[in-house]
Amino acid sequence: MKKYYKICIISIISIISIYLFVSLTKVRVGFENYNTEKWSDDLIMRFTRFQDAMNIQYNMEELQRQVSPQEAEYFLIKGRWDWPEELKNVYMDKIAVSPIVKIDPNFALDNAMQIYNKNAATELLAWNSKEGEFLLHGGFGKNKNLVKCSDNMNSMVKIVGPQVEIEIKPEDIPNEMPGFSFVSTKCNPCNIFNSDNDVGCPFKLNVEGDDSISYPWKKIWKL
Fold first, then answer.
1. Is 29 in the same domain as 17?
2. Residues 16-25: tens digit of each pLDDT
3. In terms of residue numbers, what domain contains 152?
4. CA nearest to 3, candidates 55, 50, 48
5. Do the beta carbons of residue 140 and residue 166 sit within 8 Å?
6. Residue of 106, 77, 98 lying closest to 16 (CA atoms)
């Protein structure tokens, strides 16, 4: 019965994740490099045993890039990842306004923290924000041209005809996309899809009078 209950919980969280993050088809390789501290062999062994005992499975190579040894130790003791309060609130707000998934936000949060570390959750929420959706899908700019990252994800372009892309220089993006502005220096927002480039290109999007930067992108851009 306990195993069945756990399977049901994981299924519910998976459904929530699919709803929130269904468009994640272009996630940048290497975006998960948050941790620089090396895990000890002992910690890796204990974490692997914990996974087997709890019937869960992580990509250990990726996890070690996302999570510090201290965070991993916390998870082994508590059975859940440590999230900052603001991240908890953002996650619950996203669940609460879901038109598809109807579940108590506190229940969803409790179970999500058993699966996602704070950096993985921040990244997933980032792609579901207005900034993330613009990077993934673009938006309609001046003259109703679609402004988006190019198919090869190297630069911002505007679509002016069937399969006709015109590259937009970084300094011209605000002119082509109303509501778009750079936080500081002019840069290429699409760099985030290329692991060989700098991911730090903070920008704002004014959506219905709100040009604030969403919580996950503040964290990613270190603002």
1. yes
2. 444 444 334 4
3. 131-221
4. 55
5. no
6. 98
